[in-house]
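MODEL INPUT / OUTPUT PAIR
PAIR INDEX: 1
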Amino acid sequence: MALHILSGPDALRTSVANKPSWDETARRALPINQSLRRTSPPGLPSSREMRSPSPYAARSALCNSAAALVARFLLLHRPSMSVPKNGSPSVPMAPTGPFPKLPSEIVIQIFEATACTSREGAHTISLVCSWARKIALPHLFATIVHRTQHSFSATLSSGENNHPQRRRPSVPLRWGHLVRNLWTENMGFSVPSAEEDLFGTCPNVENLALMSSSLRAVSQAIQTRSMRAVCLKDAAREPFLHRLWSLTLITHTFRYDWHFLVGTQLHDGSQLLHNITHLRILDMKISSFCPHNLLPNLTHLALPYLDLGNDLKLSDTLRLPSGVLEHKSLQMVVLTVAEDKWLTNPWYQIARYPGKNTASPRETFRALALWARQRDERLHVVLSPRRGVEPCSEWADAARGGQSLWELAAEARSKDSYACGLPEVFPKTAAR
């Protein structure tokens, strides 16, 4: 489940001493879906939301519905919970009100399914009691979006004390080991030590999105962890970043940014860059450098199409970073095109491909996808990000279990749905 640190929900508090009552917890969660209760049957999205053309809006409506259903479940039945001394999720005790006699395993499965479905659902479950909190936390912290100038640990610990001058956490980070997907972006002046702390507290990250300037902090975090293991004479060496397989670069990158990581070894002797199989670069307008030659096991690569300097007037020319198509292990190259630019930027509307249909953005885009495939079977063209969707939101949706960019590319080819969602004609407001 994705979590924006700046929101600071109560579920992030490390202390549970002042947790709200059962009824208060349920009532707090009920407003999540008030609009749905007024316009549709309980737990179902409204007809207006179901008609929404955006798949992200539909997923959000379904997730909110699940959270609302659990809130009703909590408010109506309110069982009393036992908290074992060992702290492990145990069984609920007999209910204090009208409550169906469900086996404890079913109650736990309901909580598990709800926590998996939405961030709101995981938040609601985490406020119920201590054993339910243990169920929800792995889902609540699985995906983290960190877009702030100050210390990650301070905001993750409490969601408070957001003054930009605060650089160090006042409360130790407890939940970093639960993070599997991490998007980190410095909105202003970056602090290398804070970035190093961030990576150091999330040793089990599998899917990492970061600015290219943060690659050095990743290297420093690995070195710090190795030095600590030597000083403590830890022969086993605690695993660190051993699960990392996917990188997303938010900004353009230069060759210099990567030399910090070349040859960097992990606790098991493997090299960090050799473990990367998926790479996406979101911006290449300033630099067209791609580190594919540093990633020998790279299988999936995504690049912004027109940032590479492709000239649409030359239908026989496709510009890619040197050596990309010669990469031995590469199985898929996805060329991304921003939908908003495709519809409104006149440069995108110059069609020089077979068909040359400038009247329809849908047919023009399909012709582009087929044109790329003719040059290499591994080349895919995908609309990403979609109109009105930020790259961060698109990334987080995929991390929460939605379709990844690679799955979208494969589906578009198998179903011939390259231009799904595009209009038949360009918007009248488009400057051509």
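PAIR INDEX: 2
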Amino acid sequence: QIVLKPLLIPCILACLVSFVAGEKLPNILLILTDDQDVELRGMFPMEDTVQLLGHAGALFHHAFTPTPVCCPARASLLSGMYAHNHGTRNNSVSGGCYGTHWQRVVEPRALPAILQQHGYNTFYAGKYMNEYKGEQVPRGWNEFHGLHGNSRYYNYTLRENANNIYYKTTYLTDLLSNRTADFLRRASQQAGSEDRKPFFAMVAPPAAHQPFTPAPRHAGVFSKTKAVRTPSFNQPTEDKHWLVRSSRLLRNETIHIIDSYFRMRWETLLAVDEMVVNLVAALNESQSLDDTYIVYTSDNGYHVGQFAQPFDKRQPYETDIRIPLLIRGPGIAPGSHIDTAVSLVDLAPTILAWANVSTPDFMDGESFHELLSTDTDGPFPRSLLIEYWGEGNRNTYNPECPWSQQDELAQCTLEADCHCQDAWNNTYACIRTIRYRDHRIYCEFRDHENFLEAYDLQEDPYQLNNIAYDLLPIEQALYSLRLKNLTQCSGHSCFV
């Protein structure tokens, strides 16, 4: 007897049901922020976004990044693959960020290229991948306005189709908003012609990434706000892996910096909220809003002070791995709430389902289109992979901090009181499970201790108590086996 998993049903239906002659394919707009959390109220500044996309569509309560750092997460979104398959393992060139394998093997068959091959007019604006330097327009884009390097708000260069253009004083989020709105209007005007093409537009603003520079009109809006004091805030702990365990009590000066950065992160997001208003208005004015799926998400989350870690991502805790996900579009009932766990690797298959394109066998994610179009009685059981490879080496040494090159630490700054946020062996894989009354994460670290961490998030949402060494031997062995299978999975074998 063959048993079909719920998330596979729409893929089969898509193969059985074809579009009636002349029926239009939907447009797709994807908005990707940078380092925007949900655990620390990262959506608080986004009042209009929540109203226009979440209340007018679906709000996902368990959306996760597969790798909690920028470049691998973006590669997963675009490719539909986990990092162990697409090869981008961290933000460095040596870690595969916009490296040869990505450019020659993955990018030519990623989501934009597939949509372009199926008649979509594709557009990109904003941060692409951290090591992208504007040598050429990446594969799959008809129109491209890609940022050189990592996020910044002023003094940046964009690869604008055939040219690289420098901007000094134009606030990047505002420029991206205007460029994208202009494309939406032009693409929608074309929609009335006989050669109408549906469009796929992706815009990736810098917020809320460092250097946390708000638009002048928003500076100081949250001047009285402090970082969320979770139960783990400024609480060094002895039951975490060595890098977190090495944290010491944060000084008042460092906490002051954390509060300042927290405020500025929120203030940078206000311009993104205005961007969403601008883009929805452009679609509405051109009578394309009802024909367009709009996706809002982030590449990864962020922590500020949890377990006495100053500020960063890269850790397997809910602050770092949970991301916002809001979607509105054709067939999505306003006010929908989705409790099933989904990952960034699922976005490419879902978008392809909207475009009436079958998911390629190499993609590790699965479409969640049916979650948006049908009533469900509760979350489907799902287990997701979270994986990361530390990028510390002798070149990441900071002589201003009291560590040596031989320690191979990374992300060590005076602002963070020389607490290093990464290391060469900050490498791990986790299985994040969400089932009925079972919310757990189990992690294995590939460090000098082969350390284990596990948390029952139903009972311990702030991950204060590591239960890995309290699990029954058979239970720990089963988690380990399932995790091993996930770290070696490819395509359909990743559906667990």
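PAIR 2 NOTE: Residues 252-285 form the longest helix (34 residues).
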